[in-house]
Amino acid sequence: MKLRLSLLATSLLATLPAHAERLDTINVTATRTARTADQTLASVSVITRSDIDTSQALDVADLLRERAGITFANSGGRGKATSLFLRGTGSGHVLLLIDGQRVGSATLGSPAWQFLPLAQIERIEVVRGPRAQLYGSDAIGGVIQIFTRQGQPGQHWDAHLGYGTYNTIDGNIGVSGGDERNRYSARVGYTDTDGFDATTNANVDADGYDNRSFSGSFSHRFANQMEVTLNAMQASGNTEYDGFGDVDDDYDADYKEQVLGARLSMPLTNRWDMLLSIGENRDEQLNRVNGHGDSIFKTKRQQATWQNDFELGEDSLLTAGLDFYRDKVDSTTDYAETRRDNSAVFAQYQTTWNALDLNLGLRYDDNEAFGGHTTGSIAAGYHFGNGLR
């Protein structure tokens, strides 16, 4: 167990995680750089594939609700509208990343947590507390990053098939492998359930749900240590739900969540590492009442990041970069604007002086709708010894 005493934004906080974290566990989300838990001043939890398998969780909400500071609101079972709240902040102030790409609906302002398939997930990093100085206003409450399945040396096949209550079928099959230079992974999954009636006096019927998912990744490391990585994940299907209209109306929706990403990382010198990534997230939903198309929402987020890490000394690291993303909306509902751009520049300085850890962060966002805003942070931690900071 780790006891941490940190100074964040001039406030003294004591944090004791509900789930103890190994001090040598690597995370990349809290600082956008690879750091162990004892080097990170933020409150971080890392969930591995082994943790997922032993948890017996049915979905992402089931898995994350056990973590400190996280609560969910769900409107009636698997595949139904789900909102996540982190440390009391709004659902639109928790940033979801999948393999480094921002994920969420441009119209709702938050991701569809209910459609994310556990079968495609290798690892989850949960960062509690504001990260707006690195990621923008979406991360006021914190950041949750999901990493999809990745390849390991050799070749590995695995499969899972289960059956349970409400005629629930859950199965997936995947292959992964690689060598010193190449890694690959591919997996397909399927979930189908009749569901149950979540209401007491209206829409008296079971609300079913099905989900068909896929994830794939490939990476190649060149002789000069440059590495190229490609990632893809998609989940699609149909969900039935209870509405607020006539009790005899049947509501359902076809949905698709898709994340595509490409990343190039390379050392430019022995003290300068560069990362360039591009990606796209699509969120689509067709809502029906009594089998007739009622509304269509299609949102797309195109994004790019250029990040540079400069090693200034044995215990000092400067990170600087640029973020850009563009939101687009195509819907049967009329919007005053159907496109919005956001450009940002960010910088972070991490250093250790004897027993003192220091982190300074600064970000400037220029949003086409809301104008320019600057966000900064100061965090410090002191090592007293015996695992106490």
Compact description:
The protein has 389 residues and is mainly β.
Secondary-structure map with pairings?
Elements: E1 4-8, E2 11-15, E3 26-27, E4 35-36, E5 43-48, H1 49-55, H2 60-64, E6 70-74, E7 82-86, E8 94-98, E9 101-103, E10 121-128, H3 132-135, E11 142-148, E12 154-164, E13 168-178, E14 182-193, E15 209-221, E16 227-241, E17 251-269, E18 272-289, E19 292-313, E20 316-331, E21 339-353, E22 356-367, E23 371-382
Parallel strand pairs: 8-11
Antiparallel strand pairs: 1-2, 1-23, 3-4, 5-10, 6-7, 8-9, 10-11, 12-13, 13-14, 14-15, 15-16, 16-17, 17-18, 18-19, 19-20, 20-21, 21-22, 22-23
Structure keywords:
disordered N terminus, 14-stranded antiparallel sheet, 59% strand, 4% helix, globular, Ferric Hydroxamate Uptake Protein, Chain A, domain 1, mainly beta, five-stranded mixed sheet, 389 residues
Polypeptide structure, described:
- The chain is mainly beta and 389 residues long.
- The protein has a single domain (4-382), classed as TonB-dependent receptor, plug domain (Ferric Hydroxamate Uptake Protein, Chain A, domain 1).
- The chain is built from 3 helices and 23 strands.
- It has helices at 49-55, 60-64, 132-135; strands at 4-8, 11-15, 26-27, 35-36, 43-48, 70-74, 82-86, 94-98, 101-103, 121-128, 142-148, 154-164, 168-178, 182-193, 209-221, 227-241, 251-269, 272-289, 292-313, 316-331, 339-353, 356-367, 371-382.
- The chain has a 14-stranded antiparallel β-sheet. It has a 5-stranded mixed β-sheet with strand order 5-10-11-8-9.
- The longest helix has 7 residues, at 49-55.
